Amino acid sequence: MAIVCWILWPWTSLFQSNNIAEAKDSEYPARPITFYIPYAAGGSTDVAVRPLLEAVGKHLGQPIIPVNKPGGSATTGAMAVMNAKPDGYTLGAHAGSHVFILPHMEECPYKDLSGFTFIMNYGKYIFPVMVRSDAPFQTWKDFIQWARQNQRAAKTGLIGGRAQTPQGWAMWEVEQREKVEFAYIVFKSSSESLSALLGGHTNVDATACSPSNMEYVKEGKLRILVYMTREKAPGYEDIPSLQELYGIAASTYMGVWGPKGLPNHVLERLDEAFAKGVKDSNFIDVMNRMYTPVVYMSRAELNRDVNEMFKKGAKMLKILRAGETKEKK
Q: What local confidence, expressed as pLDDT, does residue 141 receive?
């Protein structure tokens, strides 16, 4: 009998150890969570996500520590998330470009999205097409007519280029529909693009809404012709969108992801906490001041949307690259 007890004891101890580990793990989170922001401090993603993390941390009972990790067109921060241990203590921010565009680029270190777990979406950027108030066209219809008569005269400011941005995709689709051709000028930041428009170096700007450019709209120095996104700036909802005119919409994301393989109990805790966090008044106030609407998407909604856009991204880049190659010849 003593022999039997001696043989069973190690296995009984092992089961008890596993139960203790599972019980401890079920208390997630038991320590602070690291959150990688793939852009520099002070940018729109950085400013928007910090109050959200503060609110979510309160619901989780542990702080979420934001860490800026820019570089590689946001892939440096993405790789830090993908390579992290899937225990829920390393998460990160994702945006549209490095979800459904960058994986199709040769220089991107990840070629698909299988290394990530999409957790939620908390906002959407607003992409307007802006011109100076002294432009020779008052409406989008006027602009298209002018562009037909003045091919490539519409010098359009973009950040990242036509093939690398949802704005570029949307403008390209307009070109195909309306039989017009725009000229694109690429900038490194929205401030550079705005300065070029105000200075007359470009006559069209296709970047995101921001407090800076919207202040000029309020002052009457700039005018919004159309929105490339479904979302519109408060107070300017009467301006049409490409979705309303053509069924075209530039897709954007402001979301949270983690490495693949996150346990179900971790995901459930994060689902609950982020669903509550997006209702935080301070977070909503910051988003409103940035002209960035709060758009909550659950895991199921986000995964469905992302998968569709990822497939579209592959097709769009193939078409646009073929066009660029033809233009060079």
A: 97
pTM of the model: 0.85
pLDDT in tens, 116-154: 999 999 999 999 999 999 999 999 999 999 999 999 999
- How many of the other CB atoms lie within 10 Å of CB of 173? 18
**Strand (E) or helix (H) holding 255:** strand 254-259
How do residues 204-224 score in pLDDT, each as one tens digit? 999 999 999 999 999 999 999
Least Cα distance to 49 among 70, 31, 35 occurs for: 35
Which residues have CB under 8 Å from 16's CB, separation 6+? none
Q: Give the tokens for residue 84.
A: 């992290």
Q: Phi, psi (5° rounding) for residue 81?
A: -75, -50
Q: How far apart are CA 295 and CA 274, in angstroms?
A: 12
How many whole angstroms separate alpha carbon 17 and alpha carbon 254? 40
Tell me how far apart the alpha carbons of residues 156 and 97 are, in angstroms, rounded to a whole number. 19
Report in angstroms the alpha-carbon separations of 254 from 52, 96, 125, 222, 287: 11, 7, 8, 26, 11
Residue type, position 289, single letter: R
- List of domains in the chain: 34-124+253-317 (3.40.190.150), 128-250 (3.40.190.10)
Vertex 80: Cα angle to 271 and 317 (nearest 5): 85
Question: According to the model, what pLDDT value does residue 26 have?
Answer: 66
Whole-number Å distance between alpha carbons of 152 and 182: 4
